[in-house]
Amino acid sequence: MKPARSLLYVYAVCPRLHARVDLTGVAGEPLQIFAAAGLAAVIGELVRAPRVNITAFRKHDAVVRALACRFPAVVPLRFGSCLAGTEDLRQVLEAHATPLRAKLCLLRGRVQMTLRGVDHGCGRPAKSDQDARAATGRAYLQARAITTVREDEVPSLAPLLPAVSRWVRAERIEKRAGIVSVHHLVPQGCVAAYARAMHRTAEAECVRMTLTGPFPPYAFGRL
């Protein structure tokens, strides 16, 4: 009987480490460090990909949070990031070494805060309507540029953003099912000041919002 083929579950990428990682992963597997291209991937060896459920999500998050507490910079990977073996992982690290190093520099000493509110929309027409009106290539590009700008607008939360801009090092905006999420990358030592300013301004401007964090910088770890 052939032994079951294992998968590598990749939790995060860090600068090259000279320390052991005495943690366990989503399936209770001991975590290891795989080094390549001057980077270190924190991995676990699994028989199969983990099931998608809240328990597994929490275990994944616990690993990433523990790594973020121990090391100055961590690029967290999405839940369920699996590869067939170390050679595949080596190729990924080598192919993405430059953007990964840039992300590690950006994320060093910083955490994610997430602001959520209702997406009232900006009255933008559907893409199909824009495309239908764009009779020329130039008109099409102009229409797409306007759409891109509008997708970054958050009118329901706009009064709050200037109050915290001094602490924001990067921003990501997501809109889904009528909810807008604004993810901010903030220096770890400034979280309390950021939160106070956000809550104070929301009360003064009568803006309904939810502020959560600090988190590991999940929204900023995508390649």
From TrEMBL:
<dbReference type="GO" id="GO:0031412">
    <property type="term" value="P:gas vesicle organization"/>
</dbReference>
<keyword id="KW-0304">Gas vesicle</keyword>
<dbReference type="InterPro" id="IPR009430">
    <property type="entry name" value="GvpL/GvpF"/>
</dbReference>
<dbReference type="GO" id="GO:0031411">
    <property type="term" value="C:gas vesicle"/>
</dbReference>
<dbReference type="Pfam" id="PF06386">
    <property type="entry name" value="GvpL_GvpF"/>
</dbReference>
<comment type="similarity">
    <text>Belongs to the gas vesicle GvpF/GvpL family.</text>
</comment>
<protein>
    <recommendedName>
        <fullName>Gas vesicle synthesis protein GvpL/GvpF</fullName>
    </recommendedName>
</protein>
